[in-house]
Amino acid sequence: MRYGIIFFTCLFILTGFSAPEPNDEVTIIVELDESPESFLKEVERRLPRLEVVTSYDTIFNGVAIRGTAEELEKVARMDAVKNQHPVHTYEALEVEEGPTFSTELIRNQMRHPQTGKGVKVGIIDTGIDYNHQDLKDNFKGGYDTVDFDDDPMETEEEGATIHGTHVAGVVGANGEMKGIAPDVDLYAYRALGPGGVGSSVQVIAAIEEAVKDGMDVINLSLGNDVNGPDWPTSHAVNKAIELGTVVVVAAGNSGPDGWTIGSPATSSNAITVGASALSMKAPVLKVPGEREKVLIQTMSGSVPWELAKKYPVTYAGTGEEEYGDVRGKIVLFERGGIPFSHKALKAYQKGAVAVLIYNNDEGNFQGGLDGVKLPIPVASLSNEAGEWLKEKVIQQNQWVETINVSLGDQVAPFSSRGPVTTNWEIKPDILAPGVDIYSTVPGGYQSLQGTSMAAPHVAGMAALIKEAHPDWDPAEVKQALTSTADLILTGNQPFPPTEQGAGYVDLNEALEPELLIEQSSLSFGKIEERIYRKQLPLKIKNLKSEPVTISIEKPMMESGVSWTVPMATEIDPGQTEELSVELRVSAAFLEDGIHEGFLKVQESEKVYTIPYVFVKETSSYEIVSGFELETSWQNDRVADYRFHLAEGVEELRVDLYRAGTMLTAGTLLNEKDLQPGLIEGEVNIDNLNLEGSYLAIITVKTNKKESIYPFPIYIEGSR
């Protein structure tokens, strides 16, 4: 019996909805109040022509059924049906190439004998090239939920993929390359097919199969942009952990702004992994007379940025319009209009020495050249850096010089940041190498980067910990990793907790920790009262063979904030002491925004740090995220909607505008006094006569302000 719960992949593309005719065949996921077996017997008796795609009986009770809309409408009326979910399309995360960081650098520093032997790790991804010389000995099986067979091979022909094989190599390659856990048992669950695209049915079946197959560890280099704890993806991960599986999730690649962590990385119980960039040299652009330097990021498929002289810069818009001779110049483009590779190729043909593409929205971005090989470097810039170059270089007829600076250990710019909305928790939990990671791909090796590459480092480490401590549950594995992590500093100050969590993984310490601190972080919530007071537990277990004395240092003084911490406490060998930390806030003296830092726990000469966070009156996060709209398969006059609210709103309105003309197509929804969390429902669209591309504009009013959020959708008319 195959089973699962709704799941999403990295940086998916929202795809709107279609309106099936009564005889069109569609697939739905049916959630049940009873076991699938008895329900399916009744379906077979009453509706024998329906096709059962798969069924689920562990993380939730349900089935995926394919049939005509008319037949499925009869299913929906059956007594056992609790809910129905439409099937969505998802895509795999884009990755980038670069110089190399090898997992063997970590293994060579190990002081312990563990290799992952006997531990099962499931890779839910695009499949694995299990014939690769470095993976074939460790590959033990799995399942393909795209083709529903026992062959989870990477897509090899049209729409070929490499992502899952790369992730698997980081965890458990054992050949020319050695993964973090080179003797682990590798299982592949292919949930994404050609081009890295799959449906919710496929991903549901993959996570369900992995849990049922008894995986000790699951790696999910997957995610979406919904920053909230109660999206179905996060619930799915929490359930898998409850059933005894360690689940490691990539944080996402939407940094460097805050509030960019997305589900399922928002799961409270998962080990959410951000990406670090270890000590490295990076090219920056320097302008004579200006103190500010511009950091650039070479695009995937580009040659290194190694310009040795000063060069002028010329602006060419988005590259769609004609521009003059650029021989001997760096060409600055704005993102948008035409693909990156077209911009770069055109500039190269006109004599450019290099290409810069700056974002058309706030922050940085990652991009690639789609297989186009050019002898000149191509790099991306933030929107702010692009506008600065236009003002300081192009308008003032200056030239730029390339210099290389040492960045030291860093949080990778693309790594998604917390905190999580609604419950205001710190994510990521931990950092691991995620920049320019060298690993296996079908037919060879390649360097890729992203939090997709950071997560399998930690999945491999979790396998080593499970080998060393087979009786530990998922919470203890997580505690071992977060309790022993090392803070990454910028100057002499640590990066904020919402960027690095507990810090950079320390494998040697995590394998044999002396203390386990149950709380990976302390989240005191959102300050909404004039006088705020909250006490949180702090459980510490002594794994040493002798008593230890614990003392806790108060955080640095902050206006309007006071702390109460326990006095020095002795903990006997093998015992757990439950302490508490109290925060008191006078809101009138506290500045708005995110307040975060690290609580220091001293044991003899050792210092442990616990990240903490609390929030006051900030709405820099997206109040609305994850808007989805689906025509009901039962009735094309009704549409089902779903979105997440980060906070309660007084009023919410959804208006539709035709793409291109921006002419209004009507109001879809108007609701008042909505509470935070997952919002679902249905709306009548019979009188709107909708078809084609639209922009859904969501306007929300809170007691502080009015905010607007756009979501593109496509509506396919009745056939």
TrEMBL record:
Signal peptide: none annotated. The active site is at residues 125, 163, 452. Pfam families: PA (PF02225), Peptidase_S8 (PF00082). The keyword Protease applies. Residues 116-503 form the Peptidase S8/S53 domain. Residues 312-389 form the PA domain. Belongs to the peptidase S8 family. This is S8 family serine peptidase. The lineage of its organism: Bacteria, Bacillati, Bacillota, Bacilli, Bacillales.
